[in-house]
Amino acid sequence: MEIGQEFVSYFTSLLGTEVQTLPVDNAVFNWGPKLSSELALELCKVVTPEEVKQAIFHISDNKAPGPDGYSACFFKRAWHIVGDQVCTAVLDFFRSGRLLRQLNHSIIALVPKSDHCPTVADYRPISCCNVIYKAITKIIADRLAPALEHLTDRCQAAFVGGRSITDNIFLAQEMVRQYTRKRISPRCTINVDLRKAFDSVSWTFLSQVLHGYGFPPIFYCMDYGMCFHLIIFSGT
C-alpha cells in the first residue's frame, strides 16, 4: 500500500503541475526555415474515410488496448460493421477540433527504464489509448512528417523518418576520440538532461513554437483538443 501511495504522490506532483514559461521570442524563428504555404495547406486538407481506414489498419494487432478494451484487431475484423461509425467519429474530430471524453480516456501504465529501478523516478509512464485516438494521431503524424523533414536540421538524426540515431552516436564517438590531446581542433562537450527537455513541456510553449514556425492555428488548436485535462489514479 505504501509503495502504491509513493507512486501516486510522485506522479500527481509531476503530471498535475503547470510550470510557467517565458514567452517565446519570435525573432528566433527568423534564423531558420519556416513552414511553406504549400505544406501548411497539406496539413489542413480534408481528411477522407480512406485515410481513416488506412490509419486503423496500420495499427498492429498486438498493441495494448485502451480503456474500452477493444484492440485494433477487433476493428479490422469488424470493419464491415463498424467502419462507417469509426470514420464518422474521426472525421467529426477533424471538423470540430474536439474529441469525445470517452474516446480521450487513456490508461497510464508505468514501465521500468532499466533492469535496476530502486526509485519511483526510474519508471516511465506510457499511455494506452483507445484505437480511434491512435488512428487520429496516426493521420496527424503522417501529415506532419513532410513538415518535420523540412523544418528539422540535418544534425538531428533521431525521431525523424529516414534518419538513424546511430549516425550521431558514431559522430560523437569520433569527436571525443583523443579529446585530451593538445594537438586537436578546439571543441567542447555539453551535458543535456533530455528528461527535463522533453518529458514535461508546457502546452502554451508548444503552441507558441508551432505558431512561430508557421503552422496554421487550426492545426495546433486541434492537437491541444486531444490532450487530457483530468488524471484519475487507481480508478479514484
Please give a structural write-up.
Residues 111-220 form the Reverse transcriptase domain. InterPro entries: DNA/RNA_pol_sf, Retrotransposon-Effector_Assoc, RT_dom. This is Retrovirus-related Pol polyprotein from type-2 retrotransposable element R2DM. This protein is mainly alpha-helical. The chain folds into 2 domains: 2-17 and 46-151 and 219-224, no CATH class; 153-191, no CATH class. It has 11 helices and 2 strands; from the N terminus they run ααααααββααααα. It has a two-stranded antiparallel sheet. The two termini are 15 Å apart. The mean pLDDT is 83.
Question: What is the structure about, briefly put?
Answer:
The protein has about 240 residues and is mainly α.
